[in-house]
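Q: Fold this one first, please.
A: Sequence and structure below.
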Amino acid sequence: MRTYITHLPLCRETLSKEAKYIYVARNPWDVCVSYYHMVNNVNIWRFQDGTFDEFVDAFIEGDFGQGSYFDHVAGGYALIHEPNVFFLTYENLKKDTRGTVLRLAGFLGDKYFRALDENEELLQNILKWSTPDFMRSVVVIDFDKKEDETWKELFSAHSLSCKEGHEGDKTKYALVRKAKVGGWKEYFTPDHLARLEKKIQDEGDKASFMELFKDIRKEALALSSISK
């Protein structure tokens, strides 16, 4: 089985019947914080001196190099009933990792589900390898590794480095940071929350997928300046 991970949006026009797609949606508050740390850490974004307050506006407007969060998730959510699309939320993945892994195995094929259902040791290993602590140590981009064809062109064209780096090495970037749900509460001010809530409302039907995050949205709204 060949696998490919990407941040590119999922759309019906580019779906292949020969492939299976896994789309992981995460709430916009935590996504904003996660992206902020990425662009603030890696020098290619030229935002290492930028503040979270400045980034919030860029995130809301989709003006930070990755496009609109709402367009992206809405595109994936529109395909939720496609037989070769496995749509899930990061929050549910964290809440029930074991159940999600088993459902994903079934989606990929009966033989994968049976392999895990009949072999508890294998399932436990996969769960261990899926923990943030383990992934943080192995899902690392080495900017000095220019022989890797996947990154060769990008790394050769830019002198990439991190403000923090992985284990003190500024030429390495760990893709997994905190990997927790709710970290946004440590960053968003009541005004930030109000600005994002207004954006959600302005998106109208496109943001119907926000029902997936209704509990988090309710909490964010209660903490926002709107409720003051």
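Q: Good. Now the second chain.
A: Here it is, same layout.
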Amino acid sequence: MKQAPQSAVHLPSATVRDAEGRLVSLAIEYGLSANATGDNTWLVAIDGSDYGQNAVTEALRLARTMKDCTLHLVNVQHWMSKEAAESVLLAQGLAATKKALALLGQAGVPSCLHVVMGDAAESIAALAEQLGCHGIVIGSRGLGAAENLLLGSVAQQVIHSSRIAVLVVR
């Protein structure tokens, strides 16, 4: 299935606002509905790092081997003011996922990008549950034991807070 290049400018197809009217979540469809689900629906956490890009590469490999695999990308941003959210949430999300979207676009794989504000692990696990995902693909920085004990990692927190399969990619 051929689709429009994922690097083309797209506008959010869905937005969520909090009680104060602050933009807290948006979705941009690249050939896939923001609410698309299925038996092989995977959520790929992407933060713009090489580790996140490794997760996208692995998710693409999975998509090629599974029938009717659906890929949703999620980029989680730190909390920001109402004004900042309106002006930079979309831009920061697109900047962090530019390489990932280009890779999926070149492969002709439909996807949907979700950009949300909040705690990364909580937001990833909650979105995966909301979408009815089969699993989550996430990159890992490969922290040492001492760093992991002191800092923890988003991947480790997702593993503990999620009720579905989590594939950690290095």
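Q: Anything worth noting on the second one?
A: Helices lie at 50-65, 82-107, 120-131, 145-151, 154-161.
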